[in-house]
Give the backbone structure.
Amino acid sequence: MPVLKVIEVLASSEKGWEDATSVAVKMAAKTVKAIRSVYVQDMSAVVKNDDITEFRVTVRITFEVKN
């Protein structure tokens, strides 16, 4: 039975929450292998002059621990 670990990652994007989630996974994948899933825990946005300028996500990434 595999051992799984969960890490929390914060990421942002100017395009949208989906892109911010993708950024989080891509950045985590640089150092973490065998990613199994991503869970969006929280979403927020930065507003300047009545416009959204940045989308932010907090995600939980699950990956398999290899021997």
User: Anything to note?
Assistant: The chain has one domain: 3-65. The two ends are 12 Å apart (CA to CA). The domain at 3-65 is CATH 3.30.1660.10 (Dodecin subunit-like).
